Amino acid sequence: MLSVFTDWWTNLQTPYQQAVITLLTVAATFLAAHLVKFIWNNVLRPIARRTPTKADLMLVEDTALPVYIVVLTSGLYLSFLRLIGNVKLRMSAEEFADLKGSLGYKIADGVLYSLTVFAVAYIVYAAVRAVLEWYMKQVAVRTRTRLDDEMIPLIRRIAKIVIFFVALTYIMQHYDKPIMSLLGAAGIASIAVAFAAQETLSNIIAGIALMFDRPFRMGDRIELPSGQIGDVHEIGMRSTKILSFDNNLIVVPNSEMAKSMVVNYAYPDLKYKIRQVIGVAYGSDIAKVKSILLDIANTHPEVLDDPAPVANFYTFAESSLDIYFIVWVKDYKEHFRIRDEINCEINRRFEAEGVTIPFPQRTVHLRQE
User: Fold this and answer.
1) φ and ψ at 328, to 5 degrees?
2) Which residues have CB under 8 Å from 288's CB, separation 6+?
3) Residue 186: how many CA atoms within 13 Å on its side-chain side?
4) Which of 154, 209, 221, 293 could bond to 311 as cystine, CB 3.0-4.6 Å?
């Protein structure tokens, strides 16, 4: 229908008039694109900011550029088709076939059509991403489970792959390439990738298993089999990233994480047991030492009453009488600070009460022949 109207409209004008109309169409395309951009930035964005939900604001901000590109490329592509229609009427069938087969025509047609399709695909992806971001910021933070926090990035990646794969199929159809050839190529490529990237695929599968099994979550503090401790920064498709206490990022392949024994300090709750062995000199009053330790624990505001603090006479060491001292705190993230405060208070009270903390020593008897 469009081609019939274009042919009819072209026959009504001289070549000069047709060139002027084509230039005016291109100018109108740029004007329309900038008008849409102005409306997006100065009309829709202020309206979206006043709405109670943030989803529409995210949608407007994410689609501003792709909508501008769609309007621009669509107008240019229609102008290109009109120009080709004008040329077609003044050429023989053989000459026009040679023109359509030329490299310049294929480049211009392919670039304009591909840009339009990819811009539309990006609008769809931007809309999906805006909805997912809104869900993450408005809904997921209020849910008790953190599964949605971990799955939404995966869903976003899958949506991106699917949307742009569909866009690629439309572009191939424009070049008269059947979709089955793309699927066949994808199948062959997947077999090649499966052999060439077995380890990568195992990491991806392990990453999906970690997201569903959830032995740890983002933000949890874990200890690796190597003894390294850090907070889970990200659970990705290929690896798990852990932020150490030195502010260094430890990257561990998911396949290694899935088969390793990992200690999770944040599960099943945040409570943490501070345990240490405190040695006092032989001859010390054990009952008095235990009383001092329990008094320090019970007077500290962040030491839990349940489970109650424990101070037990542990063993007769080589140079000391060892007391096994245990307290519980409500948050594992605070245990370094609380341990420091308790130890400082133990040192102060021992000095005040005359309790000696011995250093390792050994008595040597020399026998003279």
Assistant:
1) -115, 140
2) 353, 355
3) 11
4) 293
Which backbone phi and psi does 317 adopt, to 5 degrees? -85, 180
The answer, as to whether pTM is greater than 0.85, is no
| 288 close to 280: Cβ distance less than 8 angstroms | no
CA dist list (Å): 260 to 17, 69, 147, 263, 348: 75, 49, 21, 10, 43
Q: Give residue 151's identity as a one-letter amino acid code.
A: M
User: Which tokens in the block code for residue 153?
Assistant: 């990035």
Report d(CA 244, CA 229) in Å as an integer. 6
Q: Contact, 18 vs 86, CB < 8 A?
A: yes
Which amino acid appears at position 84 of this protein? I
Cβ atoms of 114 and 171 closer than 8 Å: yes
How far from chain centre, in Å, is Cα 107?
A: 37
Percent of residues in the chain assigned helix, strand, coil, to nearest 5: 65, 15, 25
Question: Rounded distance, CA 117 to CA 191, Å?
Answer: 29
Closest to 278 (Cα-Cα) out of 291, 293, 288:
293
Element (H, E) at 63: helix 55-89
113 within 8 A of 77, measured Cβ to Cβ: yes
Q: What is the pLDDT of residue 177?
A: 62
214-264 has which fold?
A: SH3 type barrels. (2.30.30)
Domain boundaries, the chain: 2-195, 214-264, 272-353
Measured CA to CA, the distance from residue 119 to residue 73 in angstroms comes to: 9
Q: pLDDT tens digits for 129-162?
A: 877 777 776 665 555 555 556 567 777 778 888 8
Q: pLDDT by residue (tens digit) across 288-324? A: 999 999 999 999 999 999 899 999 999 998 889 999 9
Residue position matching structure tokens 């077609």: 88
Per CATH, domain 272-353 is 3.30.70.100: yes
